[in-house]
């Protein structure tokens, strides 16, 4: 049983008519179509009037012909503003109906005039902006019309006309002539006025529903465009991070090993060859990574393109030992430890998070090479699929190198990668000396590896400190 209070029938009626609806139907200007319809009905009304006059029906009408013409023409003229001023036109049409009905009832009863009054009342309901005021005006019109009909039978000559046309006391059906005439007139007018009101209200509700659908379609289009723009922006950020990581790391390694080769070229040919081999390997890795990014861009430009298998997969945890080994030098020791809560956790980690961990380590080691005096660097990856997190920590014992500075884009990329997985990042100098980069990600299994939706990315990047800006 519902606890909501039952609405009274006036409240239900007002709700059906949209009395409390905030939507307002637009107010159109008077168009050529409005004028055309009004003129057409007026001309048709005059032609019909003269045909009826020729039959002899209007011989008892005392008003001159030109007054009858004025009645028809003014009734048609009202329809010009039926959409622009709907309630006013409906009220004027009702007044016109009463005046013409009292002075020239045969003219008011013509088919064309009845169509004019019906359309005026229907338009008043269909096009009214203020629904409460429309209910008041239409209610007054209906009450006045039925009061007028009742007076015609009570104190007028409507009943006498039926008596004069029938034999007194004679019955032709189940009801006597007078009650049958009253009931027939009542049914006809209920259908006439009720039909005009109901059809007008259905037109108003149909227009409101169309407007709501158009508004929803516009909102969906706007949101779709916003999501598309956001997706393009996020893809650009991802590619920018990849480019930064690839170029910064490999170029840094190439520069360091080229300098080492130059220094030992004369006295240590073997060391020089090893350094050149490192340069060759780094350059190949850089080219392979760049080829992968270019392939991604081509797939964006060619939706549905099939991967030809020529690109290497994105680096993950398996490539970390080689990455750490490449950053080690005689003057700098770099260690790597993988801590798993359960054996095989590394194989169960999702590819996007593994790739983010790899890029985080790569960026941290690049910063050490370019901007730090560190002699010892520790890389630790902790995987806990029991409590549900994956963490990477890179710690060094150095200080910022004099004369070196960075753009800060590398650390911004670390934060953005963590934010894309709803992870957290800690960057900054340690109280005991050195620098720490720590990123923690929520655990995601490879089996349920689904990229985050574009709407899930939240970038909360605070302003970098002085030491962070250096790196």
Automatic annotation (TrEMBL):
Domain Histidine kinase/HSP90-like ATPase: residue ranges: 356-442
Transmembrane segments: 35-57, 63-80, 87-105, 111-128, 135-158, 178-200
Protein name: histidine kinase
The UniProt record lists the keyword ATP-binding: yes
Region (Disordered): 446-471
Pfam families (UniProt xref): HATPase_c, HisKA_3
Keywords per UniProt: ATP-binding, Kinase, Membrane, Nucleotide-binding, Phosphoprotein, Transferase, Transmembrane, Transmembrane helix, Two-component regulatory system
Residues annotated as domain Signal transduction histidine kinase subgroup 3 dimerisation and phosphoacceptor: 235-300
Molecular function terms from GO: kinase activity
EC numbers: 2.7.13.3
Reactions listed under catalytic activity: ATP + protein L-histidine = ADP + protein N-phospho-L-histidine
SUPFAM superfamilies in alphabetical order: ATPase domain of HSP90 chaperone/DNA topoisomerase II/histidine kinase
């Amino acid at each position: 049983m519902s606890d909501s209070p039952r609405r009274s029938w006036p409240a239900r009626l007002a709700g059906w008519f949209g009395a409390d609806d905030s939507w307002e139907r637009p107010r159109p200007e008077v168009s050529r179509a409005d004028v055309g319809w009004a003129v057409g009905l007026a001309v048709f009304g005059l032609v019909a009037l003269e045909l009826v006059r020729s039959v002899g029906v209007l011989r008892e009408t005392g008003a001159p012909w030109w007054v009858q013409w004025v009645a028809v023409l003014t009734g048609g003229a009202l329809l010009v503003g039926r959409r622009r001023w709907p309630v006013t036109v409906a009220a004027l049409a009702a007044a016109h109906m009463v005046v013409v009905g009292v002075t020239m009832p045969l003219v008011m009863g013509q088919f064309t005039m009845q169509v004019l009054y019906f359309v005026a009342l229907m338009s008043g309901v269909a096009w009214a902006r203020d629904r409460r005021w429309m209910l008041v005006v239409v209610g007054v019109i209906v009450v006045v019309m039925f009061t007028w009909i009742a007076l015609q039978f009570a104190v007028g000559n409507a009943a006498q006309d039926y008596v004069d046309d029938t034999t007194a006391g004679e019955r032709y059906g189940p009801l006597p002539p007078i009650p049958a005439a009253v009931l027939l007139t009542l049914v006809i007018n209920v259908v006439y006025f009720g039909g005009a009101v109901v059809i007008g209200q259905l037109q108003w509700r149909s227009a409101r529903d169309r407007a709501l659908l158009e508004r929803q379609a516009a909102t969906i289009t706007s949101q779709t465009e916003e999501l598309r723009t956001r997706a393009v922006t996020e893809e650009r950020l991802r590619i920018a991070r990849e480019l930064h990581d690839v170029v910064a790391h490999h170029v840094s390694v190439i520069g360091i090993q080229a300098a080492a080769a130059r220094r030992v070229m004369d006295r240590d040919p073997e060391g020089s060859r090893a350094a050149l081999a490192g340069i060759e390997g780094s350059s190949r890795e850089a080219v392979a990574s760049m080829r992968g990014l270019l392939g991604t861009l081509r797939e964006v430009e060619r939706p549905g393109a099939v991967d030809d298998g020529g690109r290497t997969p994105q680096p993950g945890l398996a490539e970390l030992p080689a990455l750490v080994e490449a950053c080690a030098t005689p003057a700098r020791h770099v260690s790597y430890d993988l801590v798993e809560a359960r054996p095989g956790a590394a194989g169960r980690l999702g590819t996007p998070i593994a790739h983010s961990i790899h890029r985080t380590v790569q960026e941290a080691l690049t910063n050490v090479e370019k901007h730090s005096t560190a002699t010892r660097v520790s890389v630790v990856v902790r995987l806990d699929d029991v409590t549900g997190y994956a963490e990477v920590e890179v710690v060094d014992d150095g200080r910022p190198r004099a004369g070196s500075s960075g753009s800060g884009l590398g650390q911004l990329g670390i934060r953005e990668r963590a934010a894309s997985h709803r992870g957290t990042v800690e960057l900054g100098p340690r109280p005991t000396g050195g620098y720490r980069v720590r990123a923690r990600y929520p655990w995601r299994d490879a089996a349920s590896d689904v990229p985050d939706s574009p709407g899930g990315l939240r970038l909360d990047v605070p302003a970098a400190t002085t030491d962070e800006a250096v790196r």
